Task: inverse folding
């Protein structure tokens, strides 16, 4: 559990994104702390940074023509 759990989940997320992209999809893994967004839960739109996250998602959708 703890850090080991996060490490394994992140590794699996990277593999999942690679698999999607390998088969023609357009997946992007965003590690929020690496782009300066910290303290989030898995309820992203309920967190204090929800507007920042919505903008990030909107930018990705526009960039990918969606």
Result:
């Amino acid at each position: 559990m703890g850090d080991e759990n996060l490490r394994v989940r992140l590794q699996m997320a990277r593999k999942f994104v690679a698999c999607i992209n390998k088969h023609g999809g357009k997946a992007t893994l965003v590690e929020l702390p690496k782009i300066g967004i910290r303290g989030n839960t898995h309820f992203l739109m309920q967190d204090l940074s929800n507007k920042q996250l919505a903008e990030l998602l909107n930018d990705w959708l526009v960039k990918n023509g969606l």
Observations:
- The mean pLDDT is 90.
- The radius of gyration is 13 Å.
